[in-house]
Write a structure and sequence with these properties.
Layout lengths: L9 H14 L4 E5 L7 H16 L3 E5 L3 H7 L2 E6 L2 E7 L5 H9 L22 E10 L3 E9 L3 E5 L6 H8 L12 E4 L2 E3 L4 H6 L2 E4 L3 H5 L6 H12 L9 H15 L15 H13 L5 E5 L7 H16 L3 E5 L3 H7 L2 E6 L2 E6 L6 H9 L1
Parallel strand pairs: 1-2, 7-12, 7-13, 10-11, 11-12
Antiparallel strand pairs: 3-4, 5-6, 5-8, 8-9, 13-14
Helix pairs in contact: 8-9, 8-10
Amino acid sequence: PRALVATLGAASQQMVEIARAVHHNAEVIIFDEPTATLTPEEKRHFFALLRRLKESGVSIIFISHALEEALEISDRITILRDGELVETGDTKDYDRDRIIAAMVGRTLTEEIYGEHKEREIRKAGKRILAVHDISMGTIVRNTSFSVFTGQITGVFGLIGSGRTETFKVVSGVFKRNFKRGGSIELEDRRVRYLTPAEAVADGIIYVTEDRKGEGIFETMGIGENLFGGLLASGNNKGWIVRRKDIHDLATHWIDRLNIKTINEDARVVELSGGNQQKVVIGKGLCQKPRLVIFDEPTRGVDVGAIAEIHQLINDLADQGIAVVVISSYLPEILNLSDRILVCRQGRIVEEFAPEEATEEKVMYASVH
Protein backbone atom coordinates (compact mmCIF):
# COMPACT_ATOMS: atom_id res chain seq x y z
CA PRO A 1 0.00 0.00 0.00
CA ARG A 2 2.98 2.36 0.45
CA ALA A 3 4.36 1.74 -3.02
CA LEU A 4 4.75 4.82 -5.21
CA VAL A 5 2.22 4.88 -8.04
CA ALA A 6 5.04 5.78 -10.44
CA THR A 7 6.58 2.37 -9.79
CA LEU A 8 3.42 0.49 -10.80
CA GLY A 9 2.66 -0.84 -14.25
CA ALA A 10 0.18 0.92 -16.52
CA ALA A 11 -2.66 -1.46 -15.63
CA SER A 12 -2.11 -1.05 -11.88
CA GLN A 13 -1.94 2.73 -12.24
CA GLN A 14 -5.27 2.60 -14.04
CA MET A 15 -6.83 0.60 -11.21
CA VAL A 16 -5.59 3.16 -8.67
CA GLU A 17 -7.19 5.94 -10.70
CA ILE A 18 -10.47 4.04 -10.82
CA ALA A 19 -10.36 3.41 -7.05
CA ARG A 20 -9.78 7.12 -6.42
CA ALA A 21 -12.85 8.04 -8.47
CA VAL A 22 -15.01 5.48 -6.68
CA HIS A 23 -13.79 6.69 -3.27
CA HIS A 24 -15.46 10.10 -3.73
CA ASN A 25 -18.96 8.54 -3.49
CA ALA A 26 -20.10 10.46 -6.54
CA GLU A 27 -23.63 10.19 -7.90
CA VAL A 28 -22.32 10.30 -11.48
CA ILE A 29 -18.96 8.86 -12.53
CA ILE A 30 -17.54 9.33 -16.04
CA PHE A 31 -15.06 6.68 -17.13
CA ASP A 32 -13.02 7.64 -20.21
CA GLU A 33 -11.45 4.54 -21.81
CA PRO A 34 -10.97 2.96 -18.36
CA THR A 35 -10.07 -0.51 -19.65
CA ALA A 36 -7.49 0.46 -22.28
CA THR A 37 -4.55 -0.86 -20.24
CA LEU A 38 -6.30 -3.60 -18.28
CA THR A 39 -5.75 -7.33 -18.72
CA PRO A 40 -8.80 -9.55 -19.36
CA GLU A 41 -8.84 -10.62 -15.69
CA GLU A 42 -8.56 -7.02 -14.47
CA LYS A 43 -11.28 -6.03 -16.91
CA ARG A 44 -13.58 -8.74 -15.50
CA HIS A 45 -13.11 -7.41 -11.96
CA PHE A 46 -13.66 -3.85 -13.15
CA PHE A 47 -16.95 -4.72 -14.85
CA ALA A 48 -18.11 -6.44 -11.68
CA LEU A 49 -17.31 -3.18 -9.84
CA LEU A 50 -19.35 -1.17 -12.35
CA ARG A 51 -22.33 -3.45 -11.87
CA ARG A 52 -22.12 -3.03 -8.08
CA LEU A 53 -21.95 0.74 -8.49
CA LYS A 54 -25.01 0.68 -10.74
CA GLU A 55 -26.95 -1.44 -8.22
CA SER A 56 -26.09 1.09 -5.52
CA GLY A 57 -27.70 3.88 -7.56
CA VAL A 58 -24.62 5.47 -9.16
CA SER A 59 -25.07 6.74 -12.71
CA ILE A 60 -22.17 5.71 -14.94
CA ILE A 61 -21.02 7.17 -18.25
CA PHE A 62 -18.69 4.69 -19.94
CA ILE A 63 -16.70 6.21 -22.84
CA SER A 64 -15.08 3.53 -24.96
CA HIS A 65 -13.96 2.66 -28.48
CA ALA A 66 -14.22 -1.07 -27.66
CA LEU A 67 -17.56 -2.10 -29.10
CA GLU A 68 -17.77 -5.47 -27.36
CA GLU A 69 -17.26 -3.77 -23.99
CA ALA A 70 -19.94 -1.18 -24.68
CA LEU A 71 -22.40 -3.87 -25.67
CA GLU A 72 -21.55 -5.98 -22.64
CA ILE A 73 -21.67 -3.39 -19.86
CA SER A 74 -24.13 -0.68 -20.93
CA ASP A 75 -27.89 -0.30 -20.70
CA ARG A 76 -28.07 2.52 -23.25
CA ILE A 77 -25.72 3.54 -26.05
CA THR A 78 -25.04 7.03 -27.38
CA ILE A 79 -22.94 7.46 -30.53
CA LEU A 80 -21.01 10.63 -31.37
CA ARG A 81 -19.33 11.51 -34.66
CA ASP A 82 -17.29 14.64 -35.36
CA GLY A 83 -18.48 16.20 -32.12
CA GLU A 84 -22.19 15.67 -32.84
CA LEU A 85 -24.79 13.27 -31.47
CA VAL A 86 -25.60 10.68 -34.12
CA GLU A 87 -28.07 8.47 -32.28
CA THR A 88 -28.92 7.00 -28.91
CA GLY A 89 -31.00 4.05 -27.76
CA ASP A 90 -31.27 0.91 -25.68
CA THR A 91 -28.28 -1.41 -25.96
CA LYS A 92 -30.52 -4.39 -26.76
CA ASP A 93 -31.39 -2.69 -30.08
CA TYR A 94 -27.75 -2.49 -31.21
CA ASP A 95 -25.15 -4.84 -32.59
CA ARG A 96 -21.55 -4.22 -33.60
CA ASP A 97 -22.30 -3.52 -37.27
CA ARG A 98 -24.96 -0.91 -36.48
CA ILE A 99 -22.63 0.90 -34.07
CA ILE A 100 -19.75 0.92 -36.57
CA ALA A 101 -21.96 2.25 -39.36
CA ALA A 102 -23.20 5.06 -37.10
CA MET A 103 -19.69 5.90 -35.86
CA VAL A 104 -18.06 6.29 -39.26
CA GLY A 105 -21.05 7.24 -41.38
CA ARG A 106 -20.52 4.22 -43.64
CA THR A 107 -20.39 0.46 -43.42
CA LEU A 108 -16.99 -1.03 -42.61
CA THR A 109 -16.94 -4.69 -43.55
CA GLU A 110 -14.65 -7.44 -42.27
CA GLU A 111 -11.68 -5.15 -43.00
CA ILE A 112 -11.37 -4.26 -39.33
CA TYR A 113 -13.32 -6.73 -37.23
CA GLY A 114 -14.18 -10.26 -38.22
CA GLU A 115 -12.78 -13.19 -40.14
CA HIS A 116 -9.48 -13.10 -41.99
CA LYS A 117 -10.37 -11.88 -45.47
CA GLU A 118 -8.87 -12.99 -48.75
CA ARG A 119 -6.43 -10.51 -50.24
CA GLU A 120 -3.34 -10.32 -52.37
CA ILE A 121 -0.24 -11.21 -50.37
CA ARG A 122 2.88 -9.18 -51.09
CA LYS A 123 6.01 -11.09 -51.96
CA ALA A 124 9.15 -10.44 -49.93
CA GLY A 125 11.46 -7.82 -51.35
CA LYS A 126 15.07 -7.35 -50.29
CA ARG A 127 16.01 -8.47 -46.81
CA ILE A 128 16.59 -5.21 -44.96
CA LEU A 129 16.97 -6.53 -41.41
CA ALA A 130 18.56 -9.75 -40.16
CA VAL A 131 18.64 -10.47 -36.45
CA HIS A 132 20.78 -13.34 -35.16
CA ASP A 133 20.67 -14.68 -31.59
CA ILE A 134 20.26 -11.34 -29.78
CA SER A 135 19.47 -11.23 -26.05
CA MET A 136 18.52 -8.74 -23.36
CA GLY A 137 18.41 -10.01 -19.81
CA THR A 138 15.81 -12.76 -19.46
CA ILE A 139 13.20 -10.95 -21.58
CA VAL A 140 14.81 -11.39 -25.02
CA ARG A 141 16.63 -14.69 -25.32
CA ASN A 142 18.73 -15.64 -28.34
CA THR A 143 16.06 -14.68 -30.84
CA SER A 144 16.52 -14.57 -34.62
CA PHE A 145 14.36 -13.34 -37.51
CA SER A 146 14.40 -11.29 -40.72
CA VAL A 147 12.35 -8.41 -42.12
CA PHE A 148 11.88 -7.64 -45.83
CA THR A 149 11.10 -4.52 -47.85
CA GLY A 150 7.68 -4.03 -49.40
CA GLN A 151 6.08 -6.39 -46.92
CA ILE A 152 4.15 -6.25 -43.65
CA THR A 153 5.60 -8.56 -41.01
CA GLY A 154 3.08 -9.17 -38.24
CA VAL A 155 4.34 -10.06 -34.76
CA PHE A 156 2.03 -11.68 -32.23
CA GLY A 157 2.73 -12.67 -28.65
CA LEU A 158 1.02 -12.69 -25.28
CA ILE A 159 1.85 -10.22 -22.50
CA GLY A 160 5.37 -10.96 -21.24
CA SER A 161 6.39 -12.77 -24.43
CA GLY A 162 9.09 -10.19 -25.17
CA ARG A 163 7.50 -9.00 -28.41
CA THR A 164 7.86 -5.28 -27.64
CA GLU A 165 11.24 -5.61 -25.94
CA THR A 166 12.67 -7.47 -28.95
CA PHE A 167 11.92 -4.61 -31.30
CA LYS A 168 12.95 -1.98 -28.79
CA VAL A 169 16.35 -3.66 -28.86
CA VAL A 170 16.35 -3.58 -32.67
CA SER A 171 15.50 0.14 -32.70
CA GLY A 172 18.03 1.15 -30.04
CA VAL A 173 15.50 1.93 -27.31
CA PHE A 174 16.92 -0.92 -25.21
CA LYS A 175 20.52 -2.09 -25.25
CA ARG A 176 21.04 -5.75 -26.02
CA ASN A 177 23.50 -7.92 -24.14
CA PHE A 178 26.57 -7.68 -26.34
CA LYS A 179 28.55 -10.11 -24.17
CA ARG A 180 26.17 -12.91 -25.12
CA GLY A 181 26.96 -12.45 -28.80
CA GLY A 182 24.45 -12.25 -31.61
CA SER A 183 24.19 -9.56 -34.26
CA ILE A 184 21.86 -7.16 -36.05
CA GLU A 185 22.44 -6.53 -39.75
CA LEU A 186 20.84 -3.74 -41.75
CA GLU A 187 21.14 -4.50 -45.47
CA ASP A 188 24.01 -6.91 -44.76
CA ARG A 189 25.86 -4.28 -42.69
CA ARG A 190 26.37 -5.14 -39.05
CA VAL A 191 24.97 -2.40 -36.80
CA ARG A 192 25.24 -1.75 -33.08
CA TYR A 193 22.62 0.72 -31.88
CA LEU A 194 23.14 2.21 -28.43
CA THR A 195 20.46 4.91 -28.76
CA PRO A 196 17.25 5.37 -30.79
CA ALA A 197 18.90 8.30 -32.58
CA GLU A 198 21.45 5.94 -34.12
CA ALA A 199 18.68 3.69 -35.44
CA VAL A 200 16.72 6.70 -36.72
CA ALA A 201 19.79 7.87 -38.62
CA ASP A 202 19.74 4.50 -40.42
CA GLY A 203 16.04 4.83 -41.23
CA ILE A 204 14.64 2.54 -38.50
CA ILE A 205 11.60 4.07 -36.79
CA TYR A 206 9.84 2.62 -33.76
CA VAL A 207 6.26 3.89 -33.26
CA THR A 208 5.65 3.27 -29.57
CA GLU A 209 2.63 1.53 -28.01
CA ASP A 210 2.66 4.14 -25.21
CA ARG A 211 1.85 7.31 -27.06
CA LYS A 212 1.25 9.41 -23.95
CA GLY A 213 4.39 8.31 -22.12
CA GLU A 214 6.82 7.98 -25.02
CA GLY A 215 5.28 9.21 -28.26
CA ILE A 216 4.11 12.79 -27.83
CA PHE A 217 4.57 16.00 -25.89
CA GLU A 218 0.97 16.54 -24.86
CA THR A 219 1.22 20.22 -23.99
CA MET A 220 2.96 21.12 -27.25
CA GLY A 221 1.31 21.72 -30.60
CA ILE A 222 0.88 19.28 -33.48
CA GLY A 223 3.56 20.98 -35.56
CA GLU A 224 6.01 21.12 -32.67
CA ASN A 225 5.63 17.40 -32.09
CA LEU A 226 6.12 16.66 -35.78
CA PHE A 227 9.13 18.96 -35.96
CA GLY A 228 10.65 16.97 -33.13
CA GLY A 229 10.70 14.02 -35.52
CA LEU A 230 12.61 16.06 -38.08
CA LEU A 231 15.14 17.14 -35.48
CA ALA A 232 15.63 13.54 -34.34
CA SER A 233 16.40 12.36 -37.87
CA GLY A 234 18.43 15.35 -39.00
CA ASN A 235 16.01 15.97 -41.89
CA ASN A 236 15.39 19.60 -40.91
CA LYS A 237 16.95 22.25 -43.13
CA GLY A 238 19.06 23.79 -40.39
CA TRP A 239 19.19 24.80 -36.75
CA ILE A 240 17.05 27.92 -37.22
CA VAL A 241 13.42 26.99 -36.58
CA ARG A 242 10.82 29.26 -38.12
CA ARG A 243 7.24 29.31 -36.92
CA LYS A 244 6.08 29.16 -40.56
CA ASP A 245 8.00 25.91 -41.11
CA ILE A 246 6.30 24.33 -38.10
CA HIS A 247 2.89 25.57 -39.26
CA ASP A 248 3.44 24.26 -42.82
CA LEU A 249 4.59 20.90 -41.47
CA ALA A 250 1.48 20.60 -39.32
CA THR A 251 -0.77 21.55 -42.24
CA HIS A 252 0.86 18.92 -44.48
CA TRP A 253 0.49 16.03 -42.05
CA ILE A 254 -2.96 17.06 -40.81
CA ASP A 255 -4.12 16.81 -44.42
CA ARG A 256 -2.19 13.61 -45.24
CA LEU A 257 -3.26 11.70 -42.12
CA ASN A 258 -6.72 13.28 -41.83
CA ILE A 259 -6.04 14.52 -38.30
CA LYS A 260 -9.19 16.09 -36.92
CA THR A 261 -8.37 19.22 -34.95
CA ILE A 262 -9.71 22.69 -34.22
CA ASN A 263 -6.74 24.26 -36.01
CA GLU A 264 -3.12 23.59 -36.99
CA ASP A 265 -1.81 25.13 -33.77
CA ALA A 266 -3.87 22.96 -31.40
CA ARG A 267 -2.07 21.20 -28.57
CA VAL A 268 -1.90 17.44 -28.86
CA VAL A 269 -3.60 17.02 -25.46
CA GLU A 270 -6.74 18.51 -27.03
CA LEU A 271 -6.99 15.72 -29.64
CA SER A 272 -8.83 12.42 -29.36
CA GLY A 273 -6.86 9.22 -28.85
CA GLY A 274 -7.07 8.29 -32.52
CA ASN A 275 -5.82 11.68 -33.67
CA GLN A 276 -3.03 11.64 -31.10
CA GLN A 277 -1.97 8.30 -32.56
CA LYS A 278 -1.89 9.84 -36.02
CA VAL A 279 0.46 12.53 -34.70
CA VAL A 280 2.78 9.83 -33.32
CA ILE A 281 2.74 8.08 -36.70
CA GLY A 282 3.32 11.35 -38.57
CA LYS A 283 6.23 12.12 -36.27
CA GLY A 284 7.82 8.84 -37.35
CA LEU A 285 7.08 9.24 -41.05
CA CYS A 286 8.64 12.73 -41.01
CA GLN A 287 11.93 10.93 -40.54
CA LYS A 288 11.80 9.29 -44.02
CA PRO A 289 12.08 5.71 -42.74
CA ARG A 290 13.16 2.55 -44.51
CA LEU A 291 11.78 0.32 -41.76
CA VAL A 292 8.79 1.26 -39.59
CA ILE A 293 7.97 -0.75 -36.47
CA PHE A 294 4.39 -0.16 -35.30
CA ASP A 295 3.77 -1.35 -31.74
CA GLU A 296 0.02 -1.71 -31.06
CA PRO A 297 -0.80 0.96 -33.69
CA THR A 298 -4.56 0.90 -33.10
CA ARG A 299 -4.73 0.53 -29.31
CA GLY A 300 -7.23 2.99 -27.85
CA VAL A 301 -8.36 4.11 -31.32
CA ASP A 302 -11.91 4.30 -32.71
CA VAL A 303 -12.96 2.15 -35.66
CA GLY A 304 -12.82 4.98 -38.18
CA ALA A 305 -9.23 5.80 -37.27
CA ILE A 306 -8.36 2.08 -37.29
CA ALA A 307 -9.39 1.84 -40.94
CA GLU A 308 -7.28 4.90 -41.80
CA ILE A 309 -4.23 3.61 -39.94
CA HIS A 310 -4.54 0.20 -41.60
CA GLN A 311 -4.70 1.89 -45.00
CA LEU A 312 -1.62 3.94 -44.17
CA ILE A 313 0.29 0.79 -43.14
CA ASN A 314 -0.68 -0.92 -46.39
CA ASP A 315 0.34 2.14 -48.39
CA LEU A 316 3.79 2.16 -46.78
CA ALA A 317 4.35 -1.48 -47.72
CA ASP A 318 3.12 -0.81 -51.27
CA GLN A 319 5.74 1.95 -51.51
CA GLY A 320 8.47 -0.60 -50.77
CA ILE A 321 9.00 0.31 -47.11
CA ALA A 322 9.58 -2.55 -44.68
CA VAL A 323 6.81 -2.61 -42.06
CA VAL A 324 6.54 -4.50 -38.78
CA VAL A 325 3.20 -4.54 -36.93
CA ILE A 326 3.24 -5.77 -33.32
CA SER A 327 -0.28 -6.41 -32.06
CA SER A 328 -2.04 -8.38 -29.36
CA TYR A 329 -5.21 -8.38 -31.46
CA LEU A 330 -5.15 -11.48 -33.68
CA PRO A 331 -7.68 -10.35 -36.32
CA GLU A 332 -5.52 -7.29 -36.93
CA ILE A 333 -2.43 -9.46 -37.40
CA LEU A 334 -4.24 -11.85 -39.74
CA ASN A 335 -5.81 -9.10 -41.85
CA LEU A 336 -2.68 -6.98 -42.28
CA SER A 337 0.30 -9.31 -42.40
CA ASP A 338 2.12 -10.78 -45.39
CA ARG A 339 3.96 -13.06 -42.96
CA ILE A 340 3.39 -13.69 -39.27
CA LEU A 341 5.98 -14.21 -36.53
CA VAL A 342 5.00 -15.57 -33.12
CA CYS A 343 6.95 -14.56 -30.02
CA ARG A 344 7.03 -16.69 -26.89
CA GLN A 345 9.31 -16.50 -23.83
CA GLY A 346 11.63 -13.99 -25.45
CA ARG A 347 12.07 -15.79 -28.77
CA ILE A 348 10.50 -15.85 -32.21
CA VAL A 349 9.29 -19.44 -32.16
CA GLU A 350 7.10 -19.78 -35.24
CA GLU A 351 6.46 -18.23 -38.64
CA PHE A 352 3.23 -18.52 -40.62
CA ALA A 353 2.26 -17.65 -44.16
CA PRO A 354 -1.10 -15.82 -44.24
CA GLU A 355 -2.83 -18.59 -46.17
CA GLU A 356 -2.03 -21.14 -43.46
CA ALA A 357 -2.53 -18.94 -40.42
CA THR A 358 -5.66 -19.14 -38.29
CA GLU A 359 -6.42 -17.64 -34.90
CA GLU A 360 -6.24 -21.11 -33.38
CA LYS A 361 -2.83 -21.96 -34.90
CA VAL A 362 -1.23 -18.62 -34.00
CA MET A 363 -2.61 -18.66 -30.46
CA TYR A 364 -1.48 -22.27 -29.98
CA ALA A 365 2.05 -21.34 -31.04
CA SER A 366 2.07 -18.43 -28.59
CA VAL A 367 1.31 -20.61 -25.56
CA HIS A 368 2.95 -23.99 -26.33
